[in-house]
């Protein structure tokens, strides 16, 4: 038996076959994409799990430099030339990672004020009478790496407390009449402030981030606000128990 097809019927059959093939092809591509997405998701989960394992119960040590801003004025932008002190600016940090979200750390910092810099917004430090700076700070950091789904950029916020001791110094006052009610103050024979060394406890807060270049080491930036607390006879005044800002940059290493 012979089956005869007209030209229109042949075109219709070819279109039908082509549509079926296209549908099969689209379904196959969709399945491949879904499988690929699932594999990528599994890889991402496994990678994050490995990263979490790097931190859980791990320790790190960090070494860097710090900058002390003790100008004592409202923040109106960075004034590096007048406010930043970076003489012998060494910081060392030991940190314990409780888990991927929280860590506990201790930082020891030393620095020295620089002649000509603004201190407490009351005067400029005199050369030969620069103050030393020593601080020990404890912090609890809250990390956000797991929320932004990244293993390289590692932002955090922190809260803590510490003890800071600023050594004795002399400063050329901006205006003696403006600050004649300050406590703990004497003047030398040239009319300069003569301030004794003063220690104070501080309440700290701030933010920072790590940028990881490998599994074990990273670049760190940290910015801290330190609020001075009354200590003994030293009241919370601009030349006594003052506030500071401290910036630090360095590198950190995981120990395990």
Verbal overview:
This protein is α+β, with helices and mostly antiparallel strands and 256 residues long. The protein has 2 domains: 21-55; 57-254, Porin, CATH 2.40.160. Helix content is 21%, strand content 45%. The chain contains 2 helices and 14 strands, in the order αβαβββββββββββββ. The protein has helices at residues 7-55, 80-83; strands spanning 58-69, 84-85, 87-97, 102-112, 118-119, 123-125, 132-143, 153-166, 169-173, 186-187, 193-195, 198-212, 217-229, 244-254. The strands form 2 sheets. An 8-stranded antiparallel barrel has the order 1-3-4-7-8-12-13-14. A 5-stranded antiparallel β-sheet has the order 5-6-9-11-10, with no helix packed on it. β12 (198-212) and β13 (217-229) form a beta hairpin. The longest helix has 49 residues, at 7-55. It is elongated, with a radius of gyration of 31 Å. The N and C termini lie far apart (82 Å). Mean pLDDT is 79; it is low at 233-239.
């Amino acid at each position: 038996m012979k089956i005869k097809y007209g030209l229109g019927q042949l075109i219709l059959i070819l279109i039908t076959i082509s549509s079926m093939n296209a549908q099969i092809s689209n379904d196959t591509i969709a399945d491949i994409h879904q499988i690929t997405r699932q594999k990528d998701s599994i890889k991402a989960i496994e990678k994050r799990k490995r990263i979490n394992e790097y931190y859980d119960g791990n320790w790190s040590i960090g070494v860097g430099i710090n900058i002390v801003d003790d100008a004592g004025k409202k923040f109106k932008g960075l004034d590096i030339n007048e406010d930043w002190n970076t003489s012998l600016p060494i910081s060392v940090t030991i940190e314990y990672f409780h888990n991927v979200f929280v860590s506990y750390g201790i930082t020891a910092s030393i620095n020295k004020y620089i002649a000509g810099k603004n201190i407490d917004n009351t005067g400029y430090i005199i050369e030969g009478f620069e103050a030393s700076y020593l601080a020990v700070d404890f912090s609890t950091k809250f990390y956000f790496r797991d929320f932004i789904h990244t293993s390289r950029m590692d932002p955090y916020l922190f809260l803590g407390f510490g003890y800071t001791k600023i050594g004795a110094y002399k400063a050329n006052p901006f205006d003696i009449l403006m600050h004649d009610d300050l406590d703990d103050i004497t003047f030398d024979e040239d009319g300069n402030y003569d301030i004794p060394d003063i220690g104070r406890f501080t309440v700290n807060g701030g933010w920072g981030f790590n940028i990881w270049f490998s599994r074990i080491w990273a670049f760190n930036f940290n910015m801290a606000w330190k609020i001075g607390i009354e200590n003994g006879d030293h009241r919370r005044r601009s030349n006594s128990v003052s506030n500071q800002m401290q910036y630090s940059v360095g590198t950190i290493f995981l120990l395990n």
